[in-house]
Amino acid sequence: MKVFVIAGEASGDKLGAALMAGLRKYVPDIAFDGVGGPLMQGHELSSRFPMDELSVMGLTEVLPKLRGLLARRDQMVEAILADPPDALITIDSPDFCLRVVKKVKAARPDIPSIHYVAPSVWAWRPKRAQKMARIVDHVLALLPMEPPLMQAAGVSCDFVGHPIVAEPQPTAEEVAQFRAEHGLTGTTLTLLPGSRRGEVTRLAPVFCETLEALKGDISHVVLPAAQGVVDLVSQQPWPIPVTVLDPRNMPPEQAEHRKRVAFAAGDIALAASGTVALELMRAGSPMVIAYRMAPLSAAVIRQMLISAHVSLPNILAGREVVPELLQERCRADLIAESVRDVLAQPNTQKDTFADLLTQLGQGGADPGERAARSVLSFLERRA
């Protein structure tokens, strides 16, 4: 069995690695081709180019790189058509991935197309479900409310659970050892300014001001850095000593585990909006979310947004469990105030997190295996 798989971001790399492990469990001689990050490469994928090239978000950020992205799209289409796989699996990054699928389907409609991560039509641009249904044959959904929405649009869809519930969590001993090794004797804040350089560039100045305001409340700061921004975050003029965790010189699984230990060791997290909110929720870490996009990108997205919240814990709960400081409200004074409020009552978030994780599939089958079974079942039905 040959599968061509494309992921464009760190979160997609995680999903892809879990899916690939699940597929190999049921089809031991499966062969993978495509694009992925270090975790997917750990499952015998030789990425055709660095996945980081696709990690671009926002209109103003994409435009300077558009020519290169289009060239990579055409490269993927040519590779797929030259050696047609048994399935084309694209993972998140819809702006790139679905353009690849559309061109492949135009030439070879018989190649089964599977997209992992349903579009967040419950949050914004609901018509994306109908557009996806025209070119995608099957969707793997992370959230329980998504299959009915996708099926109503005319595309096959299974809820496979969110992989966050299957991530191994550190022991109390590992957390205590981490705190001792790094001298974390007082209140510790986990700082997560984003995995893209553009995110870090926009958020770091605000986060620096926030740490300045929190000097009397926070004793230590730990920053688990993404591979592509280690140097950038290390160069920031943080007003509190920051322990930067560099993942570049260790195996991906070890770096991921160390990050989870850091999440569990922190008393509170300040994070850019994104999948990291679920990782922190899984670790039981109270948090505050702050984010600022380029003004043009933000103006466009505001016109399409139909959800009152942007972070998944809040969307799942249907209310603001986690403070969100976005755009104009992404200010040091407001962020610092929210951090102090959460530190005063951390169990308010923690109790809600336990219920939300059950919704995401905690206690059930491994999401990677569920995703693999969904793929194989779909292919069997289609055969």
How would you characterize this protein structure?
The protein has 383 residues and is α/β, with parallel strands linked by helices. The protein is built from 17 helices and 12 strands. Helix 1 (10-26) crosses helix 17 (367-382) and helix 8 (172-181) packs across helix 11. The longest helix has 17 residues, at 10-26.
Brief descriptors of the model:
globular, 48% helix, 12 strands, 6-stranded parallel sheet, 383 residues, alpha/beta
Task: Briefly characterize the structure.
With 383 residues, the protein is an alpha/beta fold. 48% of the residues lie in helices and 14% in strands.
Secondary-structure map:
Blueprint: E1 2-7, H1 10-26, E2 31-35, H2 38-41, H3 59-62, H4 66-82, E3 87-91, H5 94-107, E4 113-116, H6 128-133, E5 138-141, H7 146-152, E6 156-159, H8 172-181, E7 188-192, H9 197-213, E8 220-224, H10 230-234, E9 242-245, H11 252-265, E10 268-272, H12 276-283, E11 287-291, H13 295-304, H14 312-317, E12 324-326, H15 332-344, H16 346-359, H17 367-382
Parallel strand pairs: 1-2, 1-3, 3-4, 4-5, 5-6, 7-8, 7-10, 8-9, 10-11, 11-12
Question: Which parts are unreliable, with pLDDT below 50 for 5 consecutive residues or more?
Answer: none
How many strands? 12
Percent range of helical residues: 40-55%
Number of helices: 17
What's the Cα radius of gyration?
A: 21 Å
Distance between the termini: 13 Å
Strand order of the largest sheet: 2-1-3-4-5-6
DSSP strand content? 5-15%
Identify the overall geometry: globular
Mean pLDDT: 91
Structural class: alpha/beta
**H-E string:** EHEHHHEHEHEHEHEHEHEHEHEHHEHHH
In this structure, how is the largest beta sheet organized? 6 strands, parallel
